[in-house]
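Next comes this protein.

***
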Amino acid sequence: MKQLIAFCGLDCEMCDARIATINDDNSLRETTARKWAEMNNSPQITAETINCLGCRTDGVKFGFCSMCEIRSCATGKGFETCGDCAELNTCPTVKPVLDNDPDAKNNLTCK
């Protein structure tokens, strides 16, 4: 599996936070922060928190990774990703991601 596939199956390579970080693009950070804050009803997501090199890579992480239930669950179980979990298809924790991004499930099941 690609290293840039997050625990939940999202493709970090295509993520605006990673792209903004790599390119030091403050405009993209601001746009992403506004979008994510609204989408997640989280006004604490700001341009300053939009710095990440990928969920499963070394280096800087998105400011809220430490609170990510999906990341916490997968690492707690010693999984590389949620794709290693027998409960993937019934898991209420990762379900919102899989429902909103069909490619995420494919990324987790196609190794």
User: Anything to note?
Assistant: The first helix runs from residue 16 to 23. The mean pLDDT is 90. Residues 12-100 form one domain. The two ends are 5 Å apart (CA to CA).
